[in-house]
Amino acid sequence: MITADIANYTTYACSAIAALLIIVRLVVSKFQPKLLDISFFIAIFGLAAIVARVIVTYYVLKLGTASDVLAKMKNTTTTDLDAEDLKNIKKGSILSLFARILTTCIIWSMNLLLLLLYRRLVAHLPWVKHAITGTFVFIALSYFAVIAATFLECRPFHLYWQISPAPGACVNAYSQTMVQCLANVITDLILMGISIPILFIQGSRATHRARIFGLIALSAFCIVVTCVRLTYVFEGGSFQETRVFWASISVAVAALVANAPVIYGSLKIMQRSKRTTYAYGDGYGMANPRAKGTADMMLEDVERMDGITKHTSIAVSHIKAGDDVPLLPMPLIE
């Protein structure tokens, strides 16, 4: 039996993990080719949603919801609910709707981050471009479908916090949970389908393929967690504690899948940049231009950034013996 304390502690732990992953991603993103791209702002949005969800969930579990009260009333003959209790139930029920919206915002923003990463990985495959565009459309449509299911499952709207007469099964939010979980699973399957061709790209390194395979495995794990969450919510009578517990785990897993590959790639770039110092006489197999009147050199450093091959060239043209100008990497514009 998942209690309110267990649900709260799980929310704190999973939210801390998810927030830490996003923060690390934002910090190390300075090593990426583009610092302030759209993924940067999506990550910030996801981080804000995680913080907001922790606060909202705390009050949902503290105040209670109509669905939990109705479930408990089935096992007791007393209904000691005064005006203050009914007021708290109304507040908790409304906040639970916003908690579901925030959970959707977090998971969908992580899906967008993952899709943007895949777009960078396979931008050179024509058919994949169309698949990615279609996935963007599906993510947008499924997001609005979940939002609609969240607010329209109970009609009229006051049924969400109504206790007597019984409002019906709509307060359990089974339809909303089903739409959210199925849409998330379909998105994960599409993302896995897009990433599989990367494993068969000619010339890919074994380490690169291993990272892609790990990414696919993480996506598969995310699907498993979503299915387990769906099962427990339906079998557990949609108690708020159960919903919060498994939604928190889904948030942490989604954040791991979306941010771990970028963090890994950024750290690899950082390590490579520390090992590579372009300066006169630094012993990296480069002739010291001080010994020559002029030098014409072009060095190509193949860098693996998030699995993408980027070419960084260093050009030095007509450097005089007395010039004291270090050699700095200059990215090619492709």
Automatic annotation (TrEMBL):
It is found in: Membrane. It is a multi-pass membrane protein. The keyword Transmembrane helix applies. Residues 59-264 form the Rhodopsin domain. Keywords: Membrane, Transmembrane, Transmembrane helix. It comes from the Eukaryota. GO terms for cellular component: membrane. InterPro entries: Rhodopsin_dom_fungi, SAT4-like. The keyword Transmembrane applies. PANTHER family: PTH11-LIKE INTEGRAL MEMBRANE PROTEIN (PTHR33048:SF166), PTH11-LIKE INTEGRAL MEMBRANE PROTEIN (AFU_ORTHOLOGUE AFUA_5G11245) (PTHR33048). This is Rhodopsin domain-containing protein. It comes from Sphaceloma murrayae.
